[in-house]
Amino acid sequence: MIKAVVVDDSAFMRRAISTMLNEDPRIEVVATGKNGLQAVELAKSLKPDVMTLDIEMPEMDGLTALRVIMRECPTRVLMCSSLTTEGSVESLRALRIGAVDVIAKDHSTFSTKMGDMRDDLLERIKAIAASRGRFTTTQTTPRNADAQNDTTTTNPPAAVRSAIEPVRNVSIVCIGSSTGGPPVLEYILERLPENFPLPIVVAQHMPKVFTESMANRLDNVCRMNVVHGGDGEVIRPGTITIMHGSSHHIITGRPNNPRIQTVEAPDEAYKPSVNLLLESATRVFGANALGIVLTGIGRDGANGAKTLKEAGGTILAQDEATSVVYGMPKAVVEDQTALAAMPPVQLAQALIETQTTRAAA
Predict the structure, then answer these.
(1) DSSP string covering 250-268, please?
(2) Is 205 known to be catalytic?
(3) Alpha helix ranges (H) inside the chain
(4) I want to staple 7 with a disulfide (CB 3.0 to 4.6 A). Which of 33, 119, 151, 243 is the partner?
(5) What percent of the chain has pLDDT over 70?
(6) What are the pLDDT digits (tens) for 225-257?
(7) 280-317 in b/e burial notation, b at 16+ Cβ within 10 A?
(8) Which of 178, 213, 280, 323 is catalytic?
(9) What is the CATH number for 160?
């Protein structure tokens, strides 16, 4: 039985979320709270398997409560955020503090889409409660530091350098990510040098307002240029393109002039689809595409990874120990499409070494 605590300053939302969770026989809501102070006390006294935590609350807000909880009684926390720009910025901050995931509350459509939110909420709660991995950043890249001053980038430990043979002849990097992904993406991408020449395209399962805030955040902390790309966006060398959330996209065009195209894909549950990203990258770049599958629920990316591998491309996966939810990377590992599974620091180094190989070729 999964013990859950629901904290929200709205009595209506507390009842609604509790009702949704209690509909699943494997979940029991053992307590509710209406502010951050109560969230901290409930986390300490009940030690729940998972807590849903609102951000905007009186007395103590959700972010402050989250910091205390992570410091004094680490708990798996699912943040509940409004579907606004401000809410998305705060949600990304919560993920950096230690929240496992974020779910958006769209008050304008809540009554008509309650069933969709219930299904999404139940899936996330069960996956979060079952997960064992945890990603924490004990070291960070100094912002705006020169690449030569970053020892993680230029002088990695020998064990990291030799984890796999360098991946050769890469023309594009495609990264798929879901639950727990934003902090991992930031950790990897901010370690790449300003002159990293390859285009990088990211599909992160999030609403569009969240992916836009994530792109803005990454553009501030990364040495590479970062853009939020939707239909018609040109995929440029040396630029990280974060695909718009809330819709599906593919890569089209030719290797020397690729673009993003928005498409309909009713069979793909998660938006934007990692399967579609990898499959379309294979059509355009063939064996010269490198795919990376990060932490996330389900198997999105598994079919696309198989397509890419069959074309001669390479797939890397995040390892279980650092994955908040070992679903997506587990799928490509178990399908034997991943060349290797490794922690984020090694994934970053693998990207850097694609250029070491290119320079030596």
Answers:
(1) EEEEETTEEEEEEE--TT-
(2) yes
(3) 11-22, 36-46, 62-72, 85-97, 114-130, 151-154, 158-161, 181-189, 208-221, 274-285, 302-310, 328-334, 344-360
(4) 33
(5) 88
(6) 999 999 999 999 999 999 999 999 999 999 999
(7) bbbebbebbbbbbbbbbbbbbbbbbbbbbbebebbbbb
(8) 178
(9) 3.40.50.180
Q: Which of 88, 32, 37 is nearest to 64 (CA)?
A: 37
Query: What is the helix, strand, coil percentage profile of the chain, to 5?
Result: 40, 20, 35
- Tell whether 151 and 260 lie within a shared domain: yes
Nearest to 95 by CA among 51, 48, 118, 63: 63
**Active-site entry in 49, 54, 101, 300:** 300
Four-residue CA torsion sign, 85, 88, 90, 93: negative
Clarify whether residues 189 and 239 are in a common domain. Answer: yes
Is 178 tagged catalytic?
Answer: yes
In this predicted model, what pLDDT tens digit does every residue of 123-175 receive, in sequence order?
Answer: 999 999 988 766 665 433 333 333 333 333 333 333 333 357 889 899 999 99
Please say if 131 is a catalytic residue.
Answer: no
Task: Please say which residue of 101, 130, 159 terminates a domain.
Answer: 130
Q: Catalytic: which of 131, 171, 177, 205? A: 205
- Domain that residue 58 falls in: 2-130
> Quick one: 212 and 308 in the same domain?
yes
How many domains in the chain?
2
Q: Are residues 327 and 214 part of one domain?
A: yes
Evaluate whether residue 141 is within a structural domain.
Answer: no
**Residue 334 CB neighbours (<10 A):** 11
